[in-house]
Amino acid sequence: YMFKHPKEVCMSYLEHCMLSLKFSSLLFIGSIKAFAHALYPDIFVTSTSDLIVDIKKSMEVAGCH
Question: By the 8 A CB rule, do 30 and 51 touch?
Fold first, then answer.
């Protein structure tokens, strides 16, 4: 087995890869929204806190329980 980490979190390489890519996408979009919110505070008011909740939920159901 080439990589230890996916196995340590009870995931296959592909499962881990897809989840990490999902998080990367969510964080990229979240970063853009946070930047826009910094410049114009009346938009994306809850986007960062919503993102944190969404990522936490995803992590709770992925891999080892």
Answer: yes
The DSSP-derived string for 13-51 is HHHHHHHHHHHHHHHHHHHHHHHHHHHSTTSSTTHHHHH
Q: Which residue has the tokens 């960062």?
A: 48
Residue 48 has which token pair?
A: 């960062």
CA atoms within 13 A on the CB side of 48: 11
Mean pLDDT across the chain, nearest whole number? 94
**pLDDT, average across residues 1-8:** 87
* pTM to 2 decimal places: 0.85
CA–CA dist 22, 48 (Å, integer): 16
| Amino acid, res. 61 | V
Rounded Cα–Cα distance for residues 53 and 60 (Å)? 11
Average pLDDT rounded to a whole number, residues 18-30: 97
